[in-house]
Amino acid sequence: MCKCIRLVLMLAVALACHSAAQAFTITFDDNQAGSVIYSYDRGIDTVFFYSFSVLSHAGSTWGPPHSGANVLGWSGDGDRPAIGFGYISPVTGRPLTSVESFGAYFSTAPGAVVTMTVYNDAVKYHSPIGSIQIGGTGESWDNRYIEVDSPTGKINSVGFEAVSSGALSGFCLDDLSVTPVPEPSSLATLICGLVGVGGVVVRRRPWGEQGRV
Questions:
Q1: Residue 138 in contact with residue 193, Cβ under 8 Å?
Q2: Are the C-beta atoms of residues 48 and 39 closer than 8 Å to each other?
Q3: How far, rounded to the nearest angstrom, does the alpha carbon of residue 145 sit from its chain's CA centroid?
Q4: Which residues contact 136 (CB under 8 A, 6 or more apart)?
Q5: What is the rounded distance in angstroms from the CA atom of residue 11 to the CA atom of residue 202?
Q6: Model pTM?
Q7: Structural domain spans, the chain
Q8: Which of 7, 8, 29, 152 has the highest Cβ tally under 10 A?
Q9: What is the largest CA-CA distance in the chain?
């Protein structure tokens, strides 16, 4: 009985720590300016970048960084840059993890307008939830913060498309904050890992201590 109580307590503590530690922010200052960025490794909560690169905007005439010197901008490769949240199952083709919310500081060159579309890939590939306009005609954005929340926690990707001519090279974002949602699959993995650790602890004890906790 005591052994079961201990395992339950270990599970509760681990889940609490996982939940508390899951929100994170990517500043892009850990990457070399000019380099193409493919992912930010967070295990099951890894963020993937498509057609984006890290740019130094410390001395730029538009889009000053919100923090540090670097921002995230279009790499010039492909006409639909996108950001993916979490891994896709190789068996079902559905996301293993999803995002409860994300936010970033957006900047645009004068007149640059981009549409940001949020997708729920758990329904079907690229199923749109909604879209937001970044930038505006006759104006520029300077680190305007936009946050997107999903009550159902099913944000899996976000894509960007140019509305005005050349807009993809005239927008950037900084300090991308992400709050993932633990899915049943990831929680099951965590539980199995904890049970395995508990078993190892019991097996490593001397024979005479097997019944004590």
A1: no
A2: yes
A3: 16
A4: 108, 113
A5: 16
A6: 0.76
A7: 23-205
A8: 7
A9: 79
Residue recorded with tokens 């889009």: 63
User: What's the pLDDT score for residue 95?
Assistant: 80
Specify the CATH number of the domain 23-205: 2.60.120
* 176 and 65 Cβ atoms separated by less than 8 Å: no
Task: Spell out, as residue ranges, where the chain has pLDDT lower than 70.
Answer: 1-21, 123-124, 182-213
Q: Which residues contact 201 (CB under 8 A, 6 or more apart)?
A: none
CB neighbour list of residue 69: distance below 8 Å, 6 or more residues apart: 29, 33, 56, 57, 58
Contact 171, 109 (CB under 8 A): yes
**Both tokens of residue 97?**
């993890």
- Residue 140: Cβ within 10 Å count: 17
Altogether, the residues listed in the chain come to a count of 213
Q: Which pair of tokens denotes residue 43?
A: 């295990």
pLDDT tens-digit series, residues 89-110: 888 777 888 899 999 999 999 9
SS (H, E, C) the chain: CHHHHHHHHHHHHHHHHHHHHCCEEECCCCCCCCCECCEECCHHHCEEEECEEEEECCCCCCCCCCCCCEEEEECCCCCCCEEEECCECCCCCCECCEEEEEEEEEEECCCCEEEEEEECCCCCCCCEEEEEEEEECCECCCCEEEEEECCCCCECEEEEEECCCCHHHHEEEEEEEEEEECCHHHHHHHHHHHHHHHHHHHHHCCHHHCCCC
